[in-house]
Amino acid sequence: MNLVFLGPAGSGKTTLVWKFGEFLKGENYEIFRVNLDCAVKTLPYIPDFDIRNHFTLESIMHRYSLGPNGAMVKSIELIWRKREEIRNLCKKKEFALIDMPGQLELVIFQERKLSDIFKHDRSVAIFLMPADLIENERDYCFLRLLNLAVKFRIDMPCIYVISKADLIERKWKMRKVSDSLSEGIRNLLREIEDSQRLIYVSRNGRGFEELFSLVHEAFCTCGDLS
Ligand code: GTP
């Protein structure tokens, strides 16, 4: 199964690929970690497939005379050319954890969506809503709407989680995000999509078992994740 980590820049994708991968290994699953971010300098884990072994942001900038943004867009095209190799490698292990490039718009809003590499296989997208971006219910609602936009663009089940949950504890004093929503916002979110229970994950391992269950439920025929 492919776990495709998506979310705004700095939302904790790399950290979860690392730590959730360790959790899965601890549960005796075979894992395969894929880094598709050619701009990243250092990683906390050793990827089994690393796009930087093929090209880096600097090499693309140099080769195609592009600035950093143009080079990131170009990298999507170059990764796309390697899609069969990546797919086949991922299929060999029980879980492949895919570390997507930092900028969500590059992954989802380009003509070629990187997530499409995995859409024909058993794959779940995990959309991270980082706690440090959530100061109030409008921020939360914004991230849920962004998640909804992502869901419209990708052809695979997509679950959402609050990442960096330890920061909520500091900022919100243990208050649950969902408890603080006004009735109007609740109704809006109910209107626009099926509900899913909200889970909180952080690099210290919090929420990993719930995330694991939710990933499996994403394939449940009843489709009820509440
Ligand atoms: P890009 O790929 O660059 O967009 O980042 P990313 O989404 O992969 O996020 P990354 O894992 O690099 O984390 C960004 C920053 O958040 C780093 O400084 C991490 O150490 C920090 N971070 C990640 N997870 C957590 C967490 O659970 N709690 C806290 N407090 N910080 C975290």
Question: What's the short story on this structure?
Answer:
The chain has 226 residues and is α/β, with parallel strands linked by helices. The chain contains nine helices and seven strands, in the order βαββαααβαβαβααβα.
Description:
The protein is of the alpha/beta class. The chain has a single domain, classed as Rossmann fold (3-Layer(aba) Sandwich). Helix content is 42%, strand content 15%. It has nine helices and seven strands. The protein has helices at residues 13-26, 57-64, 68-81, 83-91, 104-108, 137-153, 165-172, 183-192, 208-217; strands spanning 2-6, 31-35, 49-50, 95-99, 123-130, 158-163, 199-200. A seven-stranded parallel β-sheet has the order 3-2-4-1-5-6-7, with helices on both faces. Helix 6 (137-153) links the parallel strand 5 (123-130) and strand 6 (158-163). Helix 2 crosses helix 3 (68-81). The longest helix has 17 residues, at 137-153. The two termini are 22 Å apart. Bound molecules: guanosine-5'-triphosphate. Guanosine-5'-triphosphate is lined by residues 7, 9-15, 37, 102, 164, 166-167, 202-203.
